[in-house]
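Read as amino acids, tokens; as here:

___
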Amino acid sequence: MLPSAAGYPRLGLAVSRKVSKRAVARNRIKRIIRESFRVRRAALPGVDVLVIARPSAAATDNPSLRADLEVAWQKLAALMAKPAPGTMGG
């Protein structure tokens, strides 16, 4: 995750043949990631995000992948949120 030079969130994908030898499975994973990002884009900070799929993603069903991505987007948004006044971070 890096601050985006463009000023808005951008997505990069890495779904290699190690994830699945079948292009159909790799494309399914990429479609789910892109759709999840598209839905959450407005709530994300202006950063470049690289999603690297693991081999276990090929065996995971669509609702579970979406749920995992939702958790990741929430963590990203919380990580980039401004710290509360009076804390050491702000």
In short: The chain has a mean pLDDT of 88. The CA atoms of residues 28 and 62 lie 9 Å apart. The chain is about 40% helix and 15% strand. Helices lie at 23-40, 62-80.
